[in-house]
Amino acid sequence: MIARDPEKPNFLIDTNEYLISYNGKSILTDPGGIEIFSAVFTAISSVENPESLTALFASHQDPDIISSLSMWLEFNPALPCYIPWLWAGFIPHFGGNKETFIPIADSGMLFSLNGLQLEAVPAHYLHSSGNCNLYDSTAKIFFLVIFGAALPENETDIFVKDFDRVIKAAEGFHRRWMGSEVAKKEWCERVSKMEIDMMCPRHGASFLGADVERFINWFL
Ligand SMILES: [Fe+2]
Asked: Cα(50) to centroid of ligand 1, in Å?
């Protein structure tokens, strides 16, 4: 996880960017907005050669997720970017060309990061109509789960310490943005069958161990 900036202007949403590295190659998931590009780039450079970045992954079309795309492509114009197919006509407005995008089917997709199998897991309508989470079955980590942009005040924890406090802050967001009961039910049924030790959301702290199941039960 790269971004958690208590100094950021309060009109911006706090977002999480995740770098998954394997055998000297890495993928950046939900690279973030324009405003955070330099911080994310610097953070990556502090742990590895940024040349080892081989792909981007955008869970959906929102600017807090992928408006930095053109800056990443300025760094490396050949970087591919996985996106839900539904947004293939929209995300290119942030940058890239025909060769940049690898569309993900509605049913999801398996792909390899230099030998590590990753899975784009459908989460449509939660909240975006074309939306994918990302699952690493080796590490048992589930990334980019839909979770409220409304975080508890002064939230700086990397992992959820007080489940009830975190959920309370997110309730309003979830009522407004997660409009489909059918989609929620389908997602919960699918995800509850997966082996997950850590659930890492787009916003806020990650759920560990028993809190993963608590989150799925609460969401349902
Ligand atoms: Fe979004």
From this structure: 26
Question: Tens digit of pLDDT for each residue in 176-217?
Answer: 888 889 999 999 999 999 999 999 999 889 999 999 999 999
Q: What separation in Å is there between the alpha carbon of 140 and the centre of ligand 1?
A: 24
Ligand 1 midpoint to CA 123 (Å):
12
Q: Is residue 11 part of a domain?
A: no
Q: What is the CATH number of the domain that holds 25?
A: 3.60.15.10
Range of the domain at 28: 18-105+112-219
Cβ atoms 159, 205 nearer than 8 A:
yes
Count of domains forming the chain: 1
Residue 8 lies in a domain: no
Using CA atoms, how far residue 57 sits from 128, 132, 167, in Å, is 15, 10, 27
54 domain-assigned: yes
Ligand 1: distance of its center to the CA of 204 in Å?
14
Residue 1, pLDDT > 60, answer: no
How far is residue 112's CA from residue 118's CA, in Å, rounded to a whole number? Answer: 6
Structural domain contains residue 12: no
- For the segment 67-79, the average pLDDT, to the nearest whole number, is 98
Q: How confident is the model at residue 170 (pLDDT cuts 50, 70, 90)?
A: confident
The alpha carbon of 23 and the centre of ligand 1 are apart by a number of angstroms equal to 31
Q: How far is the CA of 148 from the centre of ligand 1 (A)?
A: 10
Report the alpha-carbon distance of residue 5 to residue 8 in Å, rounded.
6
